[in-house]
Design a protein that fits this description.
Two copies of one chain form a homodimer. By secondary structure, chain A is mainly alpha-helical. Helix content of chain A is about 60%, strand content about 10%. A two-stranded antiparallel ribbon of chain A has the order 1-2. In chain A, helix 1 (about 5-10) packs across helix 4 and helix 2 packs across helix 3. Chain A is elongated. Chains A and B meet through helix 1, helix 4, strand 3, helix 5 and helix 6 of A and helix 1, helix 4, strand 3, helix 5 and helix 6 of B. Strand 3 (about 90-95) of chain A pairs antiparallel with strand 3 of chain B. Chain B binds a DNA duplex through helix 2 and helix 3.
DNA sequence: CCGATCTATATCAGACCAATATAGATAGGG
DNA sequence: CCCTATCTATATTGGTCTGATATAGATCGG
């Protein structure tokens, strides 16, 4: 699932600029499961244009760079559909946190419990973020993505909190 | 968390060849949370050598390429320790599956439920894989990584199965 | 006996990210 | 009121990473 496909899919839901696409990754169903940087979005949009899968219209703005608003073409729509019908690439989860925890025996106890608390806070923040856009109407897909995220983060949180005693600073050490 | 750091950490647990490092990603605590390809492992090991963080010894083998067994140096050990004490990069989870589900309204119902069932099977396979190495002795870190994976996959599985009715093929369509 | 899988290294094109550059607008705190 | 931070908006670049490919004999199952 390359950045070109991601952009194509997002534009299927409505016209947008590269900048707006990037911001979408913090909202709606996209959060936590899809991401891309400017350094790949802009080239992706250029190439999709060349391939005729999307089109641009430039909206001139005073004292600002022109907005380049992209729209899917019929060809783009069917290309995206074709992607959705092919076997999907597998998920990828990379966690520097879990990797670090594998080496908890090498670390001072204070560091380990700090890592754990930080990660708990991050997870709580992500859960809160999912609840933010909770009032507005959601499509079936958005509701699925939201619910899936919530299910995972809640389970993670429960597990992490249960681990606290295991990685607590021993009183003897804390007293030093 | 680049591949160099990952390799360095793994070698902290014992000497290994590039090939063995790659295989480790399917085992123990590394599975599902860390990954790297040969195309980045071999250059990473070369550079770690240049930097003096690891060392090599070549074991000649008949009728096979020499094994290049890598070991951490004291400098490497403290460099890895320093990494663990710095703020960690954030987790990243990318899911083509969730992305595809966001567009479930564009797909024929049969395709959506097939996606869901495939993903359920994949998740069950991952859970089974976690239980595989369950007999052998595990370090505190490995136990944490294993438990964390299990907590997440079990919650995901529960959620996914609950979603089945929502994305079932309508009987009218199935009968066609 | 043949194909598949395993051991083991290595390279390369293409994809991608993080950082940086540009540049004026707007908003908030002191 | 000014200064800093953040926002809108595009773009490039260096360095990193993946996926595919190449090589080559060993071993194992059917």
């Amino acid at each position: 699932m390359d950045v070109r496909t991601i952009c194509l899919g997002i534009l299927t839901r409505g016209d947008a600029t590269g900048y707006e696409i990037k911001n979408l990754f913090q909202h709606d169903g996209y959060q936590h499961f899809v991401e891309a940087s400017f350094g790949s979005i802009y080239p992706a949009l250029n190439r999709l244009c060349e391939e005729g899968l999307i089109s641009v219209r430039e909206e001139a703005q005073e004292k600002r760079p022109d907005r380049k608003v992209y729209s899917v073409t019929p060809a783009g729509r069917s290309a995206f559909l074709a992607f959705l019908l092919k076997p999907l690439p597998e998920d990828r989860h990379r966690s520097p946190f879990v990797f670090a925890m594998l080496f908890s025996d090498l670390l001072p106890p204070g560091r380990v419990s700090a890592l754990l608390e930080d990660y708990i806070n991050q997870t709580e923040a992500k859960l809160a973020q999912l609840d933010e856009g909770n009032t507005k109407h959601k499509s079936a897909g958005e509701e699925f993505a939201n619910g899936f995220g919530r299910a995972i983060y809640e389970a993670a949180l429960e597990f992490l909190k249960k681990q606290r005693p295991r990685f607590e600073i021993p009183e003897a050490v804390a007293a030093e």
